[in-house]
Amino acid sequence: MKVYLYEKIWMWGSALLIVAFLGSLLATTFGLGIRPPSHVETIDPKAVRTDPRFAASGVTVRPDGSVRVVALAQIWAFVPNEIRVPAGRPVTFRVTSPDVLHGFQIVGTNVNAMVAPGYVSQVTTTFHRPGEYLIVCNEYCGLGHHVMAGKLIVEAAP
Ligand code: CUA
User: What is the pLDDT of residue 34?
Assistant: First the structure.
């Protein structure tokens, strides 16, 4: 069977595309740390405010130096609205919703989670660049969706 030049070009072209797609997947997964959060933990959305896991929202530093952030995404604000974490240390966000579906995206970082009522969304990341970051809700959640924003302040390590 004779293979024509155009066939060869298309074969190599499609092989190159596959390599490029796989390469971009590997680069974003391992290079940039972008991957969907896969933490499955349930919570009763009606009892969020009395649940011990969410009784106190805010930032705590654990004995090993890692940081834990407990937050609520609710109509139409993040609680707490301003979060301060240190740079260069693993930060674990735990977010849930007492009402409807929200998003928790920290613009310019790899943190982007869906916050569904009934589930605890958990994401761990390390911020290397100190500065102010915008937290936005990226799931339409009603009339005030467009004003639902918060602030993350990454402080330089002392
Ligand atoms: Cu919360 Cu959109």
Answer: 76
Question: Is 127 among the domain residues?
Answer: yes
Q: Which domain holds residue 68?
A: 45-155
Q: What is the pLDDT of residues 7-56, one digit of tens each?
A: 999 999 999 999 999 999 999 888 877 776 667 789 998 998 889 999 88
Residue 99 alpha carbon to ligand 1 centre in Å? 10
* pLDDT one-digit tens code per residue, 55-73: 888 898 988 888 999 999 9
Atom of ligand 1 nearest to the CA of 141: 2
Asked whether residue 121 is domain-assigned, the answer is yes
Give the chain's domain count: 2
Q: Is the CB of 137 under 6 A from ligand 1?
A: yes
Distance of CA 9 to the CA centre of its chain: 41
User: Nearest residue CA, atom 1 of ligand 1?
Assistant: 102
Task: Indicate if 72 and 121 belong to the same structural domain.
Answer: yes
